[in-house]
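INFO worker-7 received task bundle
INFO bundle size: 2
INFO processing item 0
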Amino acid sequence: MSKKCLKSLKVGILCKDFRFGYRVALELKKRSIPYEMLLSEDQLKEFEVIISDMQDHDFIHCSTPEECARKVHSYLYGKRRFERVIVGIDPGPKPGIVVVGDGNFVEEVQLSSVDKVKSYVDEVYRGYSPEHFIIRIGDGDIVNRNRIINSLVENYRVEMVDERNTSEAINNKDIESAKVIAFTRGRLVRNKLNVVIREGYLKEIQRRSRIESGGKITISKELAREVALGKMSLKDAVALMGGKDEER
């Protein structure tokens, strides 16, 4: 089904909690979803979709503004909800992620760290509540890939995609590669994977520490390992190493 014109969908916000309603309005505006704030139930007939905190009505109910926006999003495509949602992930220190609802790109984001992937995916699943939900992750950056898979595989269907088959279509890593990954079938992952940190990966983190510190500091391999395992941020490792150097 083709996407409805955004202006053809009339979304109303009717909340007793005005602060929550205002936050919902800001989230809809950020996503370019038109809306109107309603003052009374007399206006309901004019709107196709109503977001409300009034539980005794057949409205869209949600606990966060982001969840509200996701529940509305499928209506823009003429559906009460998406049947199939795919999350494509390009693994790395700052993973690129896209969300596809019934073949349509509905979200894209680059997260600041691997540790944020699980909570983001949980929010996507809760917001869209699809019948079928699939995670597809590229097989590059083995350490971060396995960390992401291990955080998701017990709760979701996870497929690992061979990025060599998608390289010609990728203009840059991050969001663009995540888009290609989302539309490429992968191998089903059934169990958690070992996180093996090789020498070359530690050296790459040490190289990034020099960039982070403006060429002043190279963190130790021990600290690089902590960063690789997600136990410490690169910024904190550089700061800790700098403090140790000053003590000498």
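INFO item 0 finished
INFO processing item 1
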Amino acid sequence: MSKICIKIGGNALKDDRRLEAFLSVFSNVMQPGDQWLMVHGGGPVIAGVLDQYKVPHEFIGGHRKTDAEAIRLVEMALSGAMNGRLVRGLLQHGIKAVGLTGMDGAMARSEKRWHHDEQGTRHDLGQVGDIRGVDTSLLLTLLEKGFLPVVAPLALAPDFTAHNVNADMFAAHVAAALPVDELILLTDVEGFYRDINDPASLMEHIRLDRDKKAIWHTLQGGMIPKLEAAEIALKNGVRQVRILNGARPASLTEWRDGRAGGTLITGE
């Protein structure tokens, strides 16, 4: 029996066609006896809601700046629209899914995150958090009863307000706390590249102790927290991390069948 955490990004969920394609493949990938945990993002939906309410937003270092006005809408998008839609779809495919956020049962506690750029300047990200503790008791109870927890990346701040947490980082901390055997991060590209302009330069296997410095300069946007998330997971009990293309659901089938795919990340 394996424990697997999969993080699905908002791009794979932003329309019914993409969601159904993912769910059809995912329901066939699950093997009897395995325990799965799902963490989801919601970038495009969050951006749409913020635009609808004319709330400015930007990304700094791969993290969405979230002020007090924006956090209310982020909560609405993640725990309402995104989580509910995903859980309903999983139930339709015969999967016993339960929707949660990291605040339920005080599962995930966080502290304020600050971003430091290459010049050493500190940037205030607002109500964005770094995970500082995970209580797995609720998750383990659900897993042992055969449920699939579907968790939105919101964490409990020290003042009991919500912190928006990057979904990759959230998944890494939860995966490490359980711990799981493998963390799968779905994104909209095949994996990490030595040259982002050359599809043939896909790195099939990254060893963090050997390759991290070599590829760091090639990373942009959302791929930065993915590498950070992989490092957190691997240093805290997760055996391996894999980056797969969530825009191509067949990549999950290839992974299940042992045909590799994407980028495998190990500690050494």
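INFO item 1 finished
INFO post-check item 1: The chain has a mean pLDDT of 89.
INFO post-check item 1: The radius of gyration is 17 Å.
INFO worker-7 idle
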